[in-house]
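name: query_chain
kind: protein
chains: 1
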Amino acid sequence: MIRSTKPACNDIGQSGRKAGLPFVLFRYISASVVLASFLMIPVWCLEAGQKEFRGLWIVRHTLARPDRVIEAIETAHRTNINAVFVQVRGRGDAYYESTLVPGPDDLAPLSFDPLALVIQEAHQRGLEVHAWVNVYLTWHPTDRVPSSPNHLLNRHPEWFMTSADGIDMGSKVLGQVDLVRRGVEGRYLSPGVPEVREHIVRVVRELVERYDIDGMHLDYV
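structure:
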């Protein structure tokens, strides 16, 4: 959040719980108020010399081909975007060179390094690159079963969450209807498993140490 010494700016986005409202409704109202507050922040809330942040999210399938990568970065630059959030981990895979995570099925092995190409093209144009990582969401029932034996769904199905009715979410026999009935959209790694937490830390560390990224964007936490 951008902070200012002006009370009118600092007070924007503050909201309290209203007694008696259901929790879900409260969360919805609070989120709406905060979003509306940000949209109404006047230009003078930006301190002199502060850079306006204009971001574009680039979904992982765009990274499967070099020409699409370049087109996306050129579009971002042409429309005055100054930061791109690149989905380099969507379903427990890696749209970058990794020793920990297998590549996606729609990217030919060793064909090119999508994240490296994004960084090259974006930094040449003065754009920041933030690595967008889906942390715990690892597979979706509408996707094909991952072909790599090193994918966590194949290698460590015991790392996945268990539903409230005791169903193992790492089981590949569960279809979309089964998951929807249980109120989940996909198969999630369990943050309660120590090996999962260690794995995620290693994944993030690898990205930070091997690539000249400007930030991390953690999703599905």
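note: The domain at 53-221 is CATH 3.20.20.80 (TIM Barrel).
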